[in-house]
Design brief:
It contains three helices and two strands, in the order H-E-E-H-H. It is mainly alpha-helical. Among the domains are: 58 residues, no CATH class; 33 residues. Strands 1-2 form a two-stranded antiparallel ribbon. The N and C termini lie far apart (119 Å).
Length: 133
């Protein structure tokens, strides 16, 4: 394997290049930039870090953090969510009972599809013993 020479790598990073922006119709130079690979790398890295910083700041300091699933929320909102869950559960239970009551009213006691079965089994109840006092 060939070893990379660190001096040649640094020279390549510091070599100067010219970027020319030209008008396509007239071939007139609009702008000229003198760049090196190192300056392009530093510029792109800086832009990346700034964009990441702005995105993080936007999420942390605005209400957008509440829309991210799994993000930690404060104690007050957790308490509010729990209270709302209890209210929804209670409302669902009330709706279930109301539906059951309405179904019973629709059927009525005499129009019931299932006949009422009476318990006809006799129970032998022992008589209390009489004591001689």
């Amino acid at each position: 394997m060939a070893k990379l020479d660190t001096d040649s790598t640094l020279k390549r990073l510091r070599n100067r290049y010219r970027l020319v922006v030209m008008n396509d119709d007239t071939y007139e130079e609009v702008t000229t930039f003198k760049l090196s690979r190192l300056s392009v790398y530093i510029m792109l890295s800086t832009i990346f870090v700034v964009l990441v910083g702005l995105t993080v700041a936007l999420i942390i300091f605005t209400p957008l953090k509440y829309y991210i699933p799994g993000a930690k929320s404060d104690y007050k909102s957790v308490q509010e969510y729990r209270q709302l869950k209890y209210q929804v559960d209670a409302t669902n239970e009330e709706a279930r009972k109301l539906n059951q009551y309405l179904e019973a009213l629709k059927l009525g006691p005499l129009n019931s599809s299932a006949a009422i079965k009476l318990d006809t089994v006799q129970i032998d109840v022992p008589k209390p013993e009489e004591s001689n006092d």
